[in-house]
């Protein structure tokens, strides 16, 4: 590495550190903190201010223009499942079918299914109040807090693994597009490794970390309207429809007779799949009450409020990514991989871990990491699908105080800050490390 390379690395680290200080210490919104960090990287790296501004605009535009529609449509679907009572109906119905011993496994399965089309925070808000209520009704065997946590942690693990590893979540989906990976293969590999990782981080880990953890009464917010929940079969159909549409379109590419079907090719597009699901969900979930102004206001107020904050944050993450690329960090990493034989899977994981610890957001970590990895993938010949999964695993490493999800989980579980580190932060770290191990292992088989 020459002097310019060292300056670039220092600039990248300094810009990211500045962003985290603005977000954590001075409580600025991640949108502002990440934008300031992006401009700081350009300044420290010696980019002209005008070029840095163009990179910022391009980065925001690429992310919001590409991933923004998926985010908004996913959030609106989540709002419909929430307000109609469909998600609650699915969860409570499944838990009724299981005894106390099987309840943690049922919770894990419910979280994976419900979490597939939803943002992590949306899935958390939908599922945890139901799980907490179910935990209260279970026999406590002299350890009521441990009983609750052994039901809650599998739910968190199920939501966490699909958020990190399984498209069409926005983070993995963006990584698929940026690295030109196969969406179908990424989904297949993601599901293969997500299930054992969820078992390890959920029911298995809960047995070791829950003893001694004390819970306070959680503060739950569950705005439920006076609606008759739809039939569970309808609810499950809506949850699974976007996944089925995307998977069908991807599988059709492998069948020569269907490969040229424009209808099936369109079905594989996540935006179209989610739009179709939204349009079907409205009448199927709300029935005759769909036309009521209060119902429509509730759906779109809940959607747009969440979408605004998320889109701003990931847009600013895209700006930081683009400035790093424009400054030459992607090319530098590609040279280092070829020079020192660094595993692209490990490198992608480490970059995502660094951004995750600095910025807090798993989606921002994914966006930033994939933005500087295309050159590495091209130079090394690594499987882009596995690099996507390695970055996804790194993006959830050790959730801590600069992650809004940390405080959301703490409030819903009723744990102290120290016990949230002991349970939730450790759970995320297990997902991350086990994810890297599984991806590396899979690389020897495919």
TrEMBL record:
GO terms for cellular component: plasma membrane. Its main location: membrane. The chain crosses the membrane at residues 6-24, 31-50, 70-95, 107-135, 187-210, 230-251, 263-286, 298-320, 332-352, 358-379, 386-401, 421-445. It is a multi-pass membrane protein. It comes from the Bacteria. Keywords: Cell membrane, Membrane, Transmembrane, Transmembrane helix, Transport. One of its GO terms (molecular function) is gluconate transmembrane transporter activity. InterPro entries: Glcn_transporter. Coiled coil: none annotated. It is found in: Cell membrane. Belongs to the GntP permease family. This is GntP family gluconate:H+ symporter.
């Amino acid at each position: 590495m020459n002097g310019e390379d060292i300056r670039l690395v220092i600039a990248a680290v300094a810009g990211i550190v500045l962003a985290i200080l603005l977000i954590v210490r001075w409580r600025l919104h991640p949108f502002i903190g990440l934008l300031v960090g992006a401009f700081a990287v350009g300044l420290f790296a010696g980019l002209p201010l005008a070029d840095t501004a163009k990179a910022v605009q391009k980065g925001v535009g690429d992310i919001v223009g590409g991933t923004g529609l998926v985010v908004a449509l996913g959030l609106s679907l989540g709002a419909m499942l929430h307000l109609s009572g469909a998600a609650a109906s699915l969860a409570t119905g499944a838990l009724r079918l299981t005894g106390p011993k099987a309840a943690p496994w049922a919770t894990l399965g419910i979280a994976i299914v419900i979490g597939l089309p939803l943002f992590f925070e949306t899935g958390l808000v939908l599922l945890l109040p139901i799980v907490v209520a179910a935990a209260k009704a279970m026999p406590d065997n002299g350890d009521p807090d441990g009983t609750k946590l052994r039901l809650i942690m599998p739910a968190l693990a199920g939501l966490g693994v699909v958020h990190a590893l399984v498209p069409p979540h926005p983070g993995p989906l963006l990584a698929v597009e940026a690295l030109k990976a196969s969406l179908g293969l990424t989904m297949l590999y993601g599901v293969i490794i997500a299930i054992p990782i969820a078992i390890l981080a959920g029911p298995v880990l809960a047995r070791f970390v829950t003893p001694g953890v004390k819970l306070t009464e959680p503060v739950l917010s569950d705005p439920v309207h006076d609606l008759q929940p739809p039939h569970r079969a309808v609810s499950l159909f809506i949850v699974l429809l976007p996944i089925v549409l995307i998977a069908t379109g991807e599988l059709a590419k492998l069948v020569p007779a269907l490969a040229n079907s424009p209808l099936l090719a369109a079905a594989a597009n996540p935006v179209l799949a989610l739009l179709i699901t939204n349009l079907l969900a409205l009448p199927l979930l709300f029935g005759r009450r769909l036309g009521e102004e209060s119902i429509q206001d509730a759906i779109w107020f809940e959607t747009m409020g969440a979408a605004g904050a998320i889109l701003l944050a990931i847009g600013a993450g895209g700006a930081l990514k683009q400035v790093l690329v424009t400054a030459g960090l992607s090319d530098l990493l590609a040279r280092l991989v070829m020079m020192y034989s660094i595993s692209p899977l490990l490198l992608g994981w480490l970059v995502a871990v660094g951004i995750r610890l600095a910025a807090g957001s798993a989606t921002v970590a994914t966006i930033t990491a994939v933005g500087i990895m295309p050159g590495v993938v091209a130079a090394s010949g690594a499987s882009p699908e596995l690099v996507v999964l390695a970055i996804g695993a790194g993006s959830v490493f050790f959730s801590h105080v600069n992650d809004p999800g940390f405080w959301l989980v703490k409030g819903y579980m009723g744990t102290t800050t120290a016990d949230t580190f002991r349970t939730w932060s450790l759970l995320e770290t297990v997902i991350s490390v086990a994810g890297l191990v599984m991806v590396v292992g899979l690389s020897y088989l495919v």
